[in-house]
Amino acid sequence: MKIFSPILIFTLLIFLGSCGPIEKLPPEPSIEFRTFALFDTIDILGNPAKAGKLTFYFEDGDGDLGQEAPDTIAPADQNNLFLQLYRKTGGVFELVAPSDPLYPSEYRIPYLSAPGQNKILKGTIDVTLIYFIYNPADTLYYDFWIKDRSGNESNTASTCVVVLGDTGTCGGG
What we know:
Layout: H1 4-18, E1 30-42, E2 48-60, E3 81-89, E4 92-95, E5 121-131, E6 139-146, E7 157-158, E8 162-163, E9 168-171
Antiparallel strand pairs: 1-2, 1-9, 2-5, 3-4, 3-6, 6-7, 6-8
């Protein structure tokens, strides 16, 4: 038995030493703006349009982000990605009204889950916004946030300022 004791102890020490601390994050999701890319595109009817792709990083400590696909049209409480559009008018950024043609929709992040015991979710999300009617001089930015299945809201992040007549990417993450 004495021959196996040092091997057993050595194996146990290696096993315990290889286990890192379990990462803990708060149950509220958090987000960070990464990039906003503007590009020319064609809509589903073949008309020229402008599109913007918002990319952001997220973390959710209890892993309850996203919603199951609804069987019918999703009710408003199924939305979990929210955007507010600010447009430059007279040199000042103002929150646009829902009647504005560029007013953003609310979105539903699909159901996400992490395998295993650690339920932390981390990753990036891309959202494409299509601009059918716009003025190339329109200058805008978005504030956005997410909500998890428990109703916890994230912090609010902001995009960079974009001019709809331009193309290219702003941000840096």
